Amino acid sequence: MRTLTRSDTRGAVATGAVVFEAALLTPLLVVIMLGIVEMALLMRDNVALNSLIHTGGKAATSFAVDADRPAATVADAPATTLSDLTASAIEQAKTTLSKDSISELWVYEANPAGFPLRNGTDHFARCDDGCAAYAWDADAQEFHRTGGRLGAHDIDACGSSFGVYVKANHSFLTGVFQGVTITKHETFQLGDGADCRVATS
Length: 201
Known about the structure:
By secondary structure, the protein is of the alpha+beta class. About 35% of the residues lie in helices and about 20% in strands.
């Protein structure tokens, strides 16, 4: 029977150490790789959300109608309005972001900082006066007006500013990490032409 030499013992110890280190490091490396993939997907959704907001805002600024229309509530809001045009453009836009992940869409009268003018402070806590809120209907695959009141004369002058705010839920692909909420907003200005008045409500 062969007797184990000192070199054999050292080799066995070294092999055992390598196996032990691999057992410790492999899960860590897997988590790091998953984290890189997940962050890349999160960044992709952030970029897509920015693109959607820009698409919606630009579509609304390019449309002009008669502003001499009375303020409307959710129930009787006309179809061709600034907020509806924004929602429709986002609804129809091609994007890598699932529309089902969008939980809120606001179109609002903006203050100089880009937040809702009538909220009093710089936040998106509520959408009441000077704001129109929408929610995504996953079954109908379209936005439905859910609240707020944006009057026809809230945003009716050449050079007036309005904002678009979208909140979406990002679910991580692997399920290793918890999902996060991503929010974006952008301010747009109506054109300087003679027909730049728009109906907003």
